[in-house]
């Protein structure tokens, strides 16, 4: 007996896997065959490989996100969180953005929560660190960096200048290397418009606990990427980590100490911790344990894929797991969608198998590395050609034709127009000016109170 008038397919998460799986299911499903419900705290999906370019101003932030309701018009989209799941009753508890929690019955379940930043209990990190998992963080980082240039250009205090112009990035994988490459590029361009700030005044520091950066593209290209960043003035410290960053005073395990207003944390990801409340079998690192069919082990009505899933990599062999990247997420989502339809109709499940096609990374305008796999042959590219491959691949992988065109339009305009270097730091607290204007003169003349948004932020 169905939990609703017609079966409900509940998709938990509206990221890459959730969006593409829901689209696939809706495409394959007969009219009225089931209800597809997508639950996510955000009403949009973020294409994370473009976050560094959005932070550098090469792509408009709005073009990096895909509105779920527009792309999934035949689905039920709920903005909120799934707090718990009762597998015996097949009921999920929904926590909406506002209001009381409620129960939502389902017949089939798709787990697509993705990953969150992997952090450690480092003193000062929570208060001073900036992540790079969402478009909000990318916009915030861009505004923050340009605001530091404003501060440095407007003060004569050398200590303030030095702290404002020191930028520390922790993590040398794709996210860290691409972000520091793009931000350094942007800061170099922006410095042309500041009479009291030069690129030589800035200090960029990249820290990683491993002995190399960009491990995804192989040791030779990773070494080239390392040397390329160093030639651009980036200090790279490998085989070390950050011990503390209280009040912006960064202390590294190798003994280096610097003061910085900008500490960007990109040291890996971990499965969404909410998975621990769902009663699902988890692997040693917290991923949902799945079969090659993407079915959660021990179930026949739950599927999982993407960064929150431990999916066997059949193309590599026994004991291997698919890495958490967009290449696998896209293809897993399609197989998952097909398998949900097959499971609903009582047909056999298909197994996921995909051979690695390589990896691409951009390190700023006209700079990048790429490893392209054709069968047993690996083609390694660097520089401008690799940068073209990076943009070409991710331009094609960007969801929806609408967003592809918008991103390409941004790139095309960027060929003829100079990069925007304006900081919109006030966007972090847009009501502050109005609050000051509306406050009583006597109160403003006495002790200036904190704006409501600041109080909320502080709490």
Automatic annotation (TrEMBL):
Record's keyword terms, sorted: FAD, Flavoprotein, NAD, Oxidoreductase
Q: For the FAD/NAD(P)-binding domain, which residue ranges apply?
A: 8-315
Q: Which Pfam families match?
A: Pyr_redox_2
The entry's family comment says: Belongs to the NADH dehydrogenase family.
Recorded protein name is NAD(P)/FAD-dependent oxidoreductase
